[in-house]
């Protein structure tokens, strides 16, 4: 049975890399569309309880929908925070999968570095969420940050993988210098 | 590194070039250079055997322990 190629060119890592790049491109286009809609008045203003929201139309496969953005500092900051967080997360995944795709040699300094950044981001995600909520809402409710604990676990898992990669790198270096 | 590789000395004594030795023992000149410079972490017995055979010498002629 032919084994599936996980790393290097024409591998699962390469496929993952291209999929993630596409997702990031779609996210960027979505952000650009919303920004341009706000800029060029492609929205309907709705006022509710003293807060103005802008409803921007979006359509997928003929199904009309709309996204509502609160036009106060809270709404704008939430919107920017969402895109920044998602963008950075996907970008770091792209960097990791690019390093896996680039070479048949798995244990490289670049891979270790990218895994480290990914782990750090995910471990600090609950703290970032908590800070965001404290700054924006002046309170901290567990319900609002509980989603970020999944990131914390992902970060810890990545730390384990990072330790394995560091060990692998050390063994590979020794092997390369064994004549 | 406490283990010193005296390949240069042996190559001069046997009037052989590094490239020639590398070809005979089947390693790259880059790897031979790593060995000569003392940057190698380990040497396989098979490589040591091939070097001794090519240079007609003993391992002690190539490897020296210094207490640095």
In short:
Chain A is α+β, with helices and mostly antiparallel strands and 179 residues long. Helices cover 67% and strands 13% of the residues of chain A. Chain A is built from five helices and three strands.
Total beta strand runs of chain B: 2
Rg of chain B, alpha carbons? 11 Å
Mean pLDDT of chain A: 84
Major sheet: arrangement of strands of chain B: 1-2
**Mean pLDDT of chain B, rounded to whole units?**
91
Shape call of chain A? elongated
SSE string of chain B, helices as H and strands as E: EHHHHHE
Strand content of chain B: 5-15%
Number of continuous helical runs of chain B: 5
Main-sheet strand order of chain A equals: 1-2-3
- Helix coverage percent of chain B: 55-70%
Question: Could you give the count of β-strands of chain A?
Answer: 3
Main pleated-sheet profile of chain A: 3 strands, antiparallel
The most extensive contact between chains is: A-B, 5 and 12 residues
Specify the structural class of chain B: mainly alpha
Distinct helical segment count of chain A? 5
Estimate the strand proportion of chain A. 5-15%
Low-confidence stretches of chain A: none
Biggest β-sheet strands, sense, barrel of chain B: 2 strands, antiparallel
Descriptive overview:
The complex is a heterodimer of chains A (179) and B (68). A 3-stranded antiparallel beta sheet of chain A has the order 1-2-3. Chain A has helices spanning 12-39, 73-102, 109-137, 142-145, 148-176; strands at residues 44-48, 51-60, 63-70. The radius of gyration of chain A is 21 Å and the shape is elongated. In chain A, strand 2 (51-60) and strand 3 form a beta hairpin. Chain A contains 5 helices and 3 strands; from the N terminus they run αβββαααα. The mean pLDDT of chain A is 84. By secondary structure, chain B is mainly α. Chain B has helices at residues 7-13, 18-25, 29-37, 45-55, 59-62, and strands at residues 3-5, 63-65. In chain B, helix 2 (18-25) packs across helix 3. The radius of gyration of chain B is 11 Å and the shape is globular. The chains are: A alpha+beta (179), B mainly alpha (68).
């Amino acid at each position: 049975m032919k084994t599936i190629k996980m790393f290097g060119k024409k591998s699962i890592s390469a496929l993952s890399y291209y999929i993630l790049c596409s997702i990031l491109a779609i996210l960027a286009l979505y952000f650009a569309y919303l920004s341009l809609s706000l800029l060029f008045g492609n929205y309907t203003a709705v006022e509710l309880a003293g807060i103005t929201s802008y409803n921007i139309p979006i359509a997928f496969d003929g199904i009309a929908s709309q996204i509502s953005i609160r036009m106060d500092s809270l709404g704008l900051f939430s919107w920017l925070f969402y895109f920044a967080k998602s963008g950075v997360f996907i970008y770091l995944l792209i960097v990791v999968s690019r390093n896996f795709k680039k070479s048949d040699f798995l244990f490289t300094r670049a891979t270790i570095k990218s895994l480290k950044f990914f782990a750090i981001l995910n471990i600090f995600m609950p703290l970032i969420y908590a800070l965001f909520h404290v700054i924006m809402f002046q309170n901290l409710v567990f319900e609002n940050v509980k989603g970020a604990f999944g990131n914390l676990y992902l970060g810890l898992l990545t730390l384990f993988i990072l330790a394995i990669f560091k060990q692998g790198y050390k063994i590979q270096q020794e092997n390369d210098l064994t004549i | 590194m406490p283990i010193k590789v005296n390949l240069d000395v042996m190559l001069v004594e046997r009037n052989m070039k590094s490239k020639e030795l590398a070809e005979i023992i089947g390693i790259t000149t880059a790897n031979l250079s790593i060995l000569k410079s003392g940057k190698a972490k380990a040497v396989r017995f098979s490589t040591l055997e091939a070097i001794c055979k090519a240079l007609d010498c003993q391992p002690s002629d190539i490897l020296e322990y210094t207490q640095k």
